[in-house]
From TrEMBL:
Belongs to the UPF0060 family. The chain crosses the membrane at residues 7-28, 34-53, 60-79, 91-110. It is found in: Cell membrane. This is YnfA family protein.
Amino acid sequence: MTTARIIVLFLLAAVAEIGGAWLIWQAVRENRGWWLALLGIVALGAYGFIAALQPDAQFGRVLAAYGGVFVAGSLAWGIVVDGFKPTTWDYVGSAVALVGAAIIVFAPSADTAGT
């Protein structure tokens, strides 16, 4: 259950953070109304709470691992929402970021690794 919880929380955090940033972008860069910026602020605040629900108690590790999810999630958001056409290098970079995130999250802790 812990692995599923970690993954679900990372996905929810990505939707909240990327969606919040996108809403602010729409308000500021696309002149689509400041009410979108306010919704974006709410979504970004929700992201902070969602990230705090991760089972790992180390802020730095959680946010470092989430960085990989953010990279891949941002590209996915661009593809789905904005019609972005990624390059091969975008996909490779995303994969590297996700592998790095997985190493941080799922590698044995110092307590169990014998170091």
